[in-house]
């Protein structure tokens, strides 16, 4: 590659990395707040995703960081384990498990997870995001108490008119930003929607402080990022008890349960994002999934060790990277570097962002994950895909993510089993001639219908057994058919087997059906 081409690529990557940073900053802060942890933990994960995972990843355009899809796991995990430090140990262990997935080349197994189950999982996450962010969107704390600013009493509790107005304006911006009417303006095409929402919030805070201080978002209703003036201050924060894993909990079975849940869900989300990025990449470059799992594992191991949230490859940031013209993984590294700089240089500005803005961003994200068209689209496809979707959705809402996913997979397996049982063997009759057709592969479950059909064949009949469409016939089924053929001469039944299972399979399994019973 010549110098001019290298400079052009670097230029595109720097611009794309800057655009991704502007998208990632509010998302990192919002996801951290939705998870009930220090905003710095969200930024820390974004930094690790850019400066560690991007370097190790085989994907040129994928961007990693904290994901809205893991908020539910973080909230439930912290509650289950009794604190953030114990949860960090689970994050660290999930990284080890993910790295193991990559070493075992488990990336290919994600393709076997049924699509309705994945959609059900994401829809459930969307519903939970909306429910958990609604109190913050109306100016309440996570516990439902109103923040210390002008509040109105309602049947839902005390709410802040300022927070409600900011939330509604933010949602209007997010919903309208991609419409054709607004895309005509250059500023809309250049500026990411989350950044526009954040700027709206900062502007509202500054304006209300000057014009109507009593209506301005109070300190507890805004981001509270610790002020860091040097790397020594950063090291002091990372060395504090709140940003270190609690290794004494290593033998706690709940730690491992949460770790496995994070590893599975984060790996699924990463591989789905990787596949989506490949589809929108102009050059259609394929990234090795197992290498990506190892990179994500290292990222989560580091995040757990120093106080970050779980990390995945995130499609929102990755698509922003593609659309901004990113060429190589340098763009993701630039985004991570800018997040690191923001921790030192933009603290005072970041702390002006109302939490209602971040809640609106997450509510909108939740709506996109659980949009009504997803439900209607799956319903139109039939009961077979819709049932696992609903089972997964309800399972996640009622129990937790891991159990919900397992229930959805079991439901899909039951439908697959039902489809396999449904008519693998068909018996047709014309006079005293019978045609026994194997329409597809026949498992041991086909033994029951086969026995039923063979009992219907009278003495003296002519039977044709057609296995043309079956590449596999279970041993139990073959034994039953062999017994029928062996007994056929006594009953004066003529049996002809047409195109049995393939020669190789027949030889290896020792199928000894005779061409006719008369031989």
Automatic annotation (TrEMBL):
Keyword field contains Transmembrane: yes
Keywords for this protein: Membrane, Transmembrane, Transmembrane helix
Localization: Membrane
Single biological process term from Gene Ontology: transmembrane transport
Ranges for domain SLC26A/SulP transporter: 10-375
Domain of life per record: Bacteria
GO cellular component, one term: membrane
Topological type in the membrane: Multi-pass membrane protein
Transmembrane segments: 40-58, 70-97, 109-131, 152-177, 189-211, 255-277, 298-320, 332-365, 386-419
Record flagged with keyword Membrane: yes
Protein name: SLC26A/SulP transporter domain-containing protein
